[in-house]
Amino acid sequence: MTLAPLGEPSLLTDRVYAAIREGIRNGEFPAGSRLRLRDLAAQLGTSPMPVREAIGRLEQNGLVVRVPHRGAVVADLTPVELAHVYATRLLLEVEATRLGCAAVRAPDLAAMRTAYGRMVDAVAAGRVAEALDHDEELLTALYAAGGNPVLVGLVEDLWQRCRAFKLLGADAADSFAPEAGAWSTQRRLLEAVEARDVDAAVAVTRESLESSQRRIRTMLADAEDPR
Amino acid sequence: MTLAPLGEPSLLTDRVYAAIREGIRNGEFPAGSRLRLRDLAAQLGTSPMPVREAIGRLEQNGLVVRVPHRGAVVADLTPVELAHVYATRLLLEVEATRLGCAAVRAPDLAAMRTAYGRMVDAVAAGRVAEALDHDEELLTALYAAGGNPVLVGLVEDLWQRCRAFKLLGADAADSFAPEAGAWSTQRRLLEAVEARDVDAAVAVTRESLESSQRRIRTMLADAEDPR
DNA sequence: GGATCCTAGATGTGATCACATATCAGAAGC
DNA sequence: GCTTCTGATATGTGATCACATCTAGGATCC
């Protein structure tokens, strides 16, 4: 983990926040691992102060849980909680797909195609985390076209919360069926949106979320009971 | 504004956070007003440190906006943003009503009735802010019965963000038509839920949100153009 | 006379320090 | 031998301090 090279967010707190969140996103800090103030501060070359504020903000996002006087750990989701997150994602993302597909314009489509191309490259190179980033980039382009940034913000929030599980599921799907499997839904979504076929796009979104939830649930069950 | 009497949240930061958020909720800090670190600290009898962390967390919730080195102000919503919030609330709360109404049990109904009674009393006494609290309490009881805390959390988040406008709208509705007006939707919702009539409950939720959005939008238009 | 630069005050930001609380190891007691 | 108490250590929490940045007021130059 390291700090971004100063420039965009001039505030040290923001850079620390971004660094820790990125560490959680890419799996460097797995769910359940402790986040020690002085350790992180030393690792980032700052005082504990910005780290404290960053962790406080991460807690509000649901990425870490903090118990008073006992520190913070990266949030972990029980299978039940994960089901709730996915049920809510389904509700929000179906609507976002509907809105986006109805209002999408040329620049949005271009952004989606760009993200898709990068995702394909990343998958081919085996860089799963990066592929997931571009996947989210593609969807964000579509959802943002719908014109409701509040809705998009909530969706992104939920993505953050189940990022670790998305990584897990994508990783497994990739190593299991590199070609035909999970990464094909993006192509089908893109085609449906290009054809302005709202129903088809919604169907892809629904199917994609349900299948990835199934995949993750299976993995969790296997991890519980590795016969 | 004052600190809660120690006990519940033992952390000073949490108490400061609650105090400021409450100040925003009840209109003590109107939208757009500045939140000065040293002022708040002095007012609460603490050092600026907990206030800083509290404001950082409030920013993540979208209740305040902060520009680097220039301080924080209570978040203000443009009419467009307000429309986005209400569109998203409609999506989430219709679903929450559906889930809650289908799964509601006796204790949940009891909680709803208690909250309703308190709300009626508060309305009668002209305590609008308190009435709004009990209104949200009633809805939370229903939504929580649905069994998806993630969904409920997002709804509460959106409530916070448009709290100032809810207050405005409720205040106007109350002074305008104390008896027949806006506070009757809760009774109708309660009746629909007691009858386990999902469609009726959903209809009330939808109608309530649309009418309150209309009411707020009208008020904003009047404020813009007070002929 | 108006615009620009500069200085002084205010204020947010980051660091160091002091304290409270929790965790864990080892010893004493049962 | 196991439990329990008690100390030490680690670590989060809150306060004070030093600095950077922004804003407002006035003087100077065009």
UniProtKB/TrEMBL annotation, chains A, B:
Gene3D superfamilies: GntR ligand-binding domain-like (1.20.120.530), Winged helix-like DNA-binding domain superfamily/Winged helix DNA-binding domain (1.10.10.10). Keywords: DNA-binding, Transcription, Transcription regulation. Residues 10-77 form the HTH gntR-type domain. It comes from the Bacteria. CDD domains: WHTH_GntR. The keyword Transcription applies. This is HTH gntR-type domain-containing protein. The lineage of its organism: Bacteria, Bacillati, Actinomycetota, Actinomycetes, Propionibacteriales.
